[in-house]
Structure formats: structure tokens, C-alpha cells
Specification:
Elements lengths: L11 E7 L2 E6 L5 E4 L2 E4 L10 E4 L5 E5 L3 H6 L10 H10 L7 E5 L5 H10 L4 E5 L3 H13 L6 E4 L12 E6 L8 H7 E11 L2 H13 L2 E8 L5 E2 L6 E2 L9 E7 L3
Parallel strand pairs: 7-8, 7-10, 8-9, 10-11
Antiparallel strand pairs: 1-2, 1-6, 3-4, 5-6, 11-15, 12-15, 13-14
Length: 259
């Protein structure tokens, strides 16, 4: 049986109750996890396969799932608004981010996007994440440790609007209030043809950012909004969900042309 598919002491498990309730926990021998549906003894999980069903002390059924990247992003400890997977996926795609890439990110926030970027640049890539608030960096570090991705990230307590230390990076990813102030520094840091992706919630921000990109030697400049609507799937009553996560922000992307 593959070692990674067995629940072991010290490993993370997603205790799935239903679509609205699931819990990302660290299994520890001799301890238990308490919910409003009863408690679960971790000793009853150790040695079992991921995907195993189990019952709480109140007889409520849970499923012990192996956590994936989405779970670490959604369950991240936070004090800031995190990006949704729909936005993160597009950042990765339009930023050309993959194994071995060197990526500058700003700002770190709670580290949800940082976690995703680190996941995709493994095993030889590196994330250089700028954040001016040290209290957020502490939260981000804990979230990265939980996902076991901290070794791929260098957290930097610096103001990225004042400059970027790295050179010849593959991508610059921005999630901060004034991305246009970073554009000249991003151009200097990027290798030729390198990509920039910026996430902004307002139109005023993207107008200033696009103007800065066009003034600083970037090409293939574009902006879009991504909306995702879930479906309620029940035989005879399938329809779009009444509630949806509508506007989260706009993605602006560009690539560096040598001059």
C-alpha cells in the first residue's frame, strides 16, 4: 500500500461532513477533534486509508479525505480577504507559472496565493513574497508550514513599491492597492518575455496599471473579469444556484518586451 495514501500520526486530514462543512485537521496520536456533531478520536484514523468513512461519538458520518491544494487555500488562517481558486488558476495560467519558475509576489497577505504559487513551482522553483506588515507574514508562514511548502518561499518584509531585489525572474504577481507603482520595478526584475499578472478589485486601479504597463515596455496587455456560478444538481430540479460569488476582481496581464 503506498505510504502517502495511509493516514499517519502528524499528517493532515480533511474531515468532510457535507458541502458546507469540512475541517482541515492535523492528526495527533492520543488526541481528538470536537465538532457540533460529536468528537472524533484521531487514534481511530491512524493506519486507515484516505477516503475512509468514520462516525463521530454522536453517530454522525464523516469521510477522511486527503487534503489537496484547494483545501489548504480555503482553510488558510486569515486576517485578509483571500483570492478564490478561479482567480488563482487564471493567475497561474496567464503568468506562465510552472515547475522551476522564479516568481516575485506582492503582497503576501494570509499567504493563500503564496501557497498555490509555491505548489506549482516545486521542486526547483522559488517564490519571493513581499509584504510590509509583519503580522500578516507570521500568518502566511503558518499556512505555508501547514501545507508543507514553506521551503519554496522567501518571505520578505519590504515595500515592493520601493524596488525589487531579484533579477531575471519569470513572473511578477501583484495583489496590492497600487500595482502601477510596481510596474517599473517589475520590468527591471523580469527576464525578457517574462509575465506580469495583477489582481485588482476596482476599475480605477486597472486603468492606472494598464497605462503604466504600456508606458514601460510591456506588450500583450489585457484585462478580464472571471465569474463562476455553481449548479444545484437534483434530478428534475437542476438549475443555477441562487447565490453565487460574483465580482471578486479584475486580472490584468502583460509580458516584457526587451528595449
Amino acid at each position: 500500500m503506498p505510504r502517502r495514501k495511509i493516514i499517519r500520526d502528524g499528517k493532515n486530514v480533511l474531515l468532510y461532513l457535507n458541502r458546507k462543512r469540512s475541517y482541515l485537521v492535523r492528526v495527533e496520536k492520543g488526541k481528538s477533534f470536537h465538532t457540533h456533531k460529536g468528537f472524533i478520536e484521531f487514534d481511530s484514523l491512524i493506519g486507515k486509508k484516505y477516503g475512509t468513512s468514520l462516525f463521530s461519538s454522536l453517530g454522525v458520518e464523516f469521510v477522511a479525505l486527503e487534503p489537496i491544494l484547494r483545501d489548504f487555500v480555503f482553510k488558510a488562517q486569515r486576517r485578509t480577504q483571500i483570492l478564490y481558486p478561479k482567480d488563482i488558476a487564471l493567475i497561474v495560467m496567464f503568468g506562465g507559472i510552472g515547475p522551476g519558475c522564479r516568481v516575485v509576489e506582492a503582497g503576501t497577505g494570509a499567504g493563500a496565493l503564496t501557497t498555490a504559487l509555491a505548489f506549482y513551482v516545486r521542486p526547483r522553483g522559488r517564490i519571493y513574497s513581499y509584504e510590509v506588515r509583519p503580522e500578516f507574514q507570521e500568518i502566511a508562514h503558518k499556512n505555508l508550514e501547514k501545507a508543507k511548502l514553506e521551503k519554496y518561499v522567501q518571505l520578505k518584509n519590504q515595500d515592493v513599491t520601493l524596488g525589487i531585489d531579484e533579477v531575471d525572474v519569470d513572473t511578477v504577481v501583484l495583489d496590492l492597492p497600487t500595482p502601477w507603482l510596481v510596474v517599473p520595478h517589475a520590468y527591471a526584475a523580469l527576464k525578457g518575455s517574462g509575465g506580469l499578472v495583477s489582481f485588482s478589485p476596482t476599475i480605477d486601479q486597472i486603468v492606472k496599471t494598464v497605462e503604466a504597463l504600456e508606458d514601460n515596455g510591456f506588450v500583450d496587455v489585457g484585462t478580464f473579469e472571471c465569474l463562476m456560478r455553481g449548479m444545484q444538481v437534483i434530478r428534475g430540479r437542476t438549475r443555477p444556484q441562487t447565490l453565487m460569488t460574483g465580482h471578486t476582481g479584475y486580472l490584468t496581464y502583460a509580458r516584457k518586451a526587451l528595449r
